[in-house]
Structure formats: structure tokens, C-alpha cells
Write a structure and sequence with these properties.
single chain; mainly alpha; 3-stranded antiparallel sheet; 3 strands; disordered N terminus
């Protein structure tokens, strides 16, 4: 990418500068200053690269420069893209074009005066709500569906069967099969995304002092969570809620992981490298096709199944009721103000804890017999 300084515009406006190719010079300088402006906002390098390439792509389509672009050019380009791409991809490209033109039209950067000086015209904003794709919310693109309970059980059983089959045959892929089984179980049991589970390190698996029975796998410190608006990854801690998942992860760390080369990565490939996201996706597709499951199932279906099953258990809904993904989707089914949901949380938490503490032989008769105190529920304060 190009790099420039904010003083480039004043150099272009000085009377003693004669440009051999003013169109190319002004466009390259404007793009370089725009890149610097996005870097000052601490946006990720991938987001900046996509924005830069989108502007060049639209310039190649129109065969013209930003100060001559019109709304018709954007509409023709969008119509051509929609013939073979998804709407959200085209909307992202439209947003990049709109942000670049908004930068050129900002009086703080004086690009309007530069264009008037050299070309006798200036850019205009060609992206509006009348010719761009709107974003209708989280439910606009349903995406991959979650596993049914039967499909999830068959998938995890198939993972264990591959491990046993490789061990009995004394083949080389026994360790890889055990690693894949632990990876799939970890993504489902903690509700992680594909990048989050692939970039876990051994140090990210920590104990939970309140649940010592889970051993080392009491919680996962996720350091590569999904960011927002071009920012870096978010960090969060995910508690363990399934006892069998803690046992599976502890077994992998104690038995399988030492067979690979020492290093920080939790999941290691046969070449002693970290398992990549593409390799993880290929392994998932291989297992899915081996079971002849529908092709619409992707690795993200583990995360959707995790949230769906937790909501079914916490809300006391029948199994397989098709509960929507996430609390935001659940709240959207019943349009109520956000403050109206606050009094319902203590009751929901009380029901979930009562069901957990009532399990015989797990929490002890003394604790199970003790009633759980009802938390105080205060009405929201007026703003």
C-alpha cells in the first residue's frame, strides 16, 4: 500500500507544482492518506487492505476517477456483482466506496479543493439509502443450521469410532483422529468459533477454583474472539458447563498432546505446526461426508448447537424445540423493551440453579436440601 502524510494535499495545492499525470497522482495520494487515516483508527490490516482493493476495483470497473463517479456507475456495478455473489458481500463493497468518498468530501482534508484546482470538479457522495443494500439485522442471513441431537450424537460417536479403528489397525493416524475428536468436542462444549478453537494454546486452558472436579479444564481463555467494526480480536473467558467435555479435554492434554512436539499450541498437526482453519474445515467436511450428513452443516453449527441446547435446558423447553440462536434472537421474537427483561433474569437463574442443585448424588444431600436464596430484583432506574 501507499503511505503519505497529511501535508500532501498542501503540496498539491501549491502553485509551483506541475504534475505530469495529475489524475493518477491525486488518486494515489488520496488513497495513501486514506490508508493512514484508517491506520490511525487502529483498524486491522485485513480491513484496510479490503477497503483499498475495493476502491481500485470500482475504479477499474468505471475506467474513471472518483471526481467523475456517478450514482449510475455504482448501481451498474452492484447489479453486475449481485448476479454471482451474496448480498452481504456486495453491501461490504458498497460501504467501502461510501467511506472513501466520505473521506474525500471531509473539509478537514481539503481534497475537494485539490480536485477543483486540477480538474474543475469535485467528488460527490454516490452511496445513499436508495441505491445500497440495507442490513436488516442478525436474522437477515440464517446461515448454517445447528445440529439436531441425533446428528450431534452420531457425529461425536463417529469421531470416537475412528480413533478406535485406527488404534486397532495400528495405523499412523490414531493421534490425528484423537486430536480431531477432542477439537470437535471442544468447539461444541464451549461454543467456540472456528478461529477461536484453532488458536487455543495450552496456557488458555485454566482451572476453575469453584469447580475443582473439572480439573485443569475449568474454563477456556479465548483470546481470538470475533472483533467488530474492523477492530482487533476480543478476549473472553468461557466456563465449563459439561463434565464430559472437561474429561475429554483433560485426557487429550495428558495423553495425546505430549506425543507431539512441545510448543504453545493446543492443537498440533502431523508436521508439528498449529492446525490451520482451512485444515480444520477439511477435517470436518471429511467426517460429515463420512456420515452422509447434509452439506449445509458447517463447523459453525457446533456453536449454534451449544447455544440452542443451553437455552433449551435453562428455559425448561422440550428437547429439539428449535430454540433460536442467542439471547438477541430470543428477545426479538417478543418485542419488548430491554428493561422489561431484567426482572425475568433472576427467575431464570433461579430455575436453572434449582435444576442443577436437585440432581441426586452430585452436589450432596446437605447442599441439595438447602434452599437457594432468591436474589433481589430491583426495577430499572429511570434515565
Amino acid at each position: 500500500m501507499l503511505t503519505a502524510t497529511a501535508r500532501e494535499t498542501r503540496k498539491l495545492l501549491s502553485g509551483g507544482v506541475v504534475l505530469l499525470r495529475p489524475e493518477e497522482a491525486v488518486l494515489e495520494t488520496a488513497l495513501g492518506c486514506w490508508v493512514m487515516q484508517m491506520e490511525s483508527r487502529n483498524l486491522t490490516a485485513g480491513y484496510i487492505e479490503d477497503s483499498y482493493r475495493a476502491v481500485l476495483r470500482f475504479r477499474d470497473h468505471t475506467n474513471d476517477y472518483p471526481w467523475n463517479w456517478s450514482a449510475g456507475d455504482l448501481e451498474a456495478w452492484s447489479s453486475e456483482l449481485l448476479a454471482g455473489r451474496q448480498a452481504r458481500t456486495v453491501r461490504t463493497l458498497q460501504n467501502h466506496i461510501g467511506r472513501f468518498l466520505g473521506y474525500l468530501l471531509d473539509p478537514a482534508y481539503e481534497w475537494t479543493a485539490v480536485c477543483e484546482h486540477y480538474f474543475g470538479t469535485h467528488p460527490v457522495q454516490i452511496c445513499s439509502e436508495w441505491n445500497t443494500i440495507r442490513q436488516h439485522g442478525e436474522g437477515e442471513h440464517p446461515g448454517p443450521r445447528p445440529f439436531t441431537r441425533a446428528e450431534l450424537g452420531d457425529f461425536l460417536d463417529y469421531c470416537d469410532a475412528r480413533v478406535e479403528r485406527a488404534r486397532r489397525a495400528r495405523r499412523k493416524g490414531a493421534l490425528a483422529a484423537a486430536r480431531d475428536a477432542a477439537m470437535f468436542k471442544t468447539q461444541y462444549a464451549w461454543g467456540l468459533r472456528r478461529r477461536e478453537v484453532c488458536r487455543l494454546d495450552l496456557i488458555d486452558v485454566a482451572e476453575n477454583p469453584r469447580r475443582p472436579e473439572f480439573g485443569r479444564a475449568g474454563l477456556l481463555d479465548v483470546r481470538w474472539g470475533k472483533g467488530s467494526r474492523g477492530k482487533g480480536p476480543k478476549r473472553r473467558a468461557v466456563l465449563t458447563v459439561m463434565a464430559w467435555s472437561a474429561a475429554a479435554l483433560n485426557q487429550y492434554i495428558e495423553v495425546v498432546r505430549p506425543c507431539y512436539q512441545p510448543g504453545p499450541a493446543l492443537w498440533v498437526s502431523e508436521r508439528q505446526l498449529r492446525v490451520s482453519e482451512s485444515s480444520y474445515n477439511d477435517r470436518f467436511c471429511e467426517y460429515r461426508d463420512g456420515l452422509k450428513l447434509p452439506g449445509e452443516l458447517t463447523p459453525h453449527a457446533f456453536r449454534r448447537s451449544y447455544i440452542t441446547h443451553l437455552l433449551e435446558y435453562a428455559l425448561g423447553l422440550p428437547l429439539g424445540c428449535g430454540c433460536p440462536l442467542g439471547w438477541a434472537a430470543w428477545r426479538r421474537l417478543r418485542p419488548r423493551p430491554a428493561s422489561a427483561w431484567r426482572p425475568a433474569w433472576p427467575g431464570l437463574r433461579r430455575r436453572w440453579l434449582a435444576a442443577r442443585w436437585a440432581q441426586p448424588g452430585r452436589w450432596g444431600a446437605r447442599r441439595a436440601a438447602r434452599p437457594w436464596p432468591a436474589p433481589r430484583c430491583r426495577p430499572p432506574r429511570p434515565r
